[in-house]
Every structure is written in structure tokens, then in C-alpha cells.
Amino acid sequence: xxxxxxxxADGTRAVRLDGDVLVDLGHSDLGELFAQPDWKAKAQAxxxxxxxxxxxxxxxxxxxxxxxxxxxxxxHNYTNHIKEMGRDLPAHPTLFPKFADTxxxxxxxxxxxxxxxxxxxxxxxxxxxxKQVRRxxxxxxxxxxxGFTVMNDISVRDWQFRTIEWTQGKIWEATTPVGPxxxxxxxxxxxxxxxxxxTTVDGRVMQQDDTGTLLFxxxxxxxxxxxxxxxxxxxxxxxxTPAGVGNARDPKVFLLxxxxxVTEITGLGACTNKVIEA
Length: 278
Fold this sequence. Notes:
Shape: globular
Order of helices and strands: EEEHHEEHEEEEEHEEHEEEHEEE
CATH architecture of the largest domain: Alpha-Beta Complex
CATH topology of the largest domain: Fumarylacetoacetate hydrolase, domain 2
Largest sheet: 11 strands, mixed
Helix content: 10-25%
Mean pLDDT: 95
Distance between the termini: 37 Å
Number of domains: 2
Radius of gyration: 18 Å
Strand content: 25-35%
């Protein structure tokens, strides 16, 4: 299934893609849907014939989960990206947080913060949690994955590298597109999918890799992070970005107003965001 949170005139709605329409699933957003123990059966049972629907054409996608209890991001998880940043391969995942206020819809404009000229792109496979889990074993971790989505972990590099701790460069308000869909594992080859990830800026390919080359795969990350803290329905784990970020280029290249950045993952869809002035 492909699931989304749609903005409507009456507020946000959780929906399922069914051909050229989006079927209303009876919940305000995917976070609320995933909190239901039988969410998958309920989402599958809704009919486009008898239920409320919305056209896909012109759909205004909200972040797939507008208010997750937490967003946990992973750095240094593709070998090529680690090498381009001049670092050694890590023995353990490198984690940092984001907050709900950082999230954007898949097609929203990206407002360049006035405080930076070092706005960078990072395409990422994101895991969306569908079941509460703590200290998960491998099977529990796999079962807790509701699906996958696309994230562009936009980074404010000059603020990120002010200190050895990255968070201040990663949590700028309304700078992280995520969506358009949460796609269930059965549609992408399971809970350890091998999918092509790509970033383009004004049509120029900047990043391209395969999620099958992740050092720490989605199931392992759910196990690892749930050891530290309870993962709840709607929580998001961003699994890291491959080589090709602007900060690692010589000379460095960053996003400018007027440009369009597209982060895409095969089978999941794309975030398409125009950069605009503050």
C-alpha cells in the first residue's frame, strides 16, 4: 500500500492511493492511523467505491506524519559518503534528532534561512514506525516497520560545523521535506530494501546510490534505537545519505533561491521542492 497524509479544506486526512484517487481512511493523519493496532487491515479494507476520495492530481501532501513523537537521524551510513567526508567507517550508528517543526510536505517550497549561504541536500530512505517497540529483537524490529518514505535532510552546513555536535545545523524550522507516501515493505522487497536513491538540482544529478549498501540497515536501526528509547507509531528514522552532497564538492555547491531540488527513491516517489528567499 501507498499511504499519505493529505491537506484538505477541512484539515489533514490519512489516505491510501488507489489508482488515480486517494481514499480517506477515517483518520486525521498517518500518525493517528498507525496508532491503531489493526491499522493495516483497516487501511486495506477502505473502498474507493463507498468511501470519501480525493484526486491525486493536484494533491497537497502534508509531511507523512505531521507530528511524530520523535525523528531520529543517522549519519555516516553509506561507505562512499563517509569517505567523501574524510571519516573512518563507524562501529556504531551516529544518531542525532530532528523535531516535528522541521518537517515539510513533499512538494512544499523550501525557504532558505536568511542566516546561511550553505544550504545543502541529503536524500535519505526514511523508516516509519507502525508499532510501539522497546529493546526489539530482529523479528520485532522488522514487524515494527510500517513502511518507508523519502526524506531530504536539508542541512545548514555553516551552523552544523560550528561545533562537533551537528544538531543546530539539522533542525532549522520547515526545512525537511518528507513524503509523499509511506510505502509498505511488501511493495519494495521487504524490510531491508535495495532501492535507488537520487538527488537532482535543476535536473543535474548530484547523488545516486542504492539503499542495499547501507552500513546499518533499517531493521538493525530499529533494534539499536529501540534499545535506547521507545519507538512509537509514527516515529521516523532517517537512515543517512550517500555521496554527492554539496559541502563535499570542490568547490562547494549549495542551494540557491530559484532552484528546484528533487530527492527520489525508486518505488517510493519524490520530494520536489523549490528554494525561495526568506
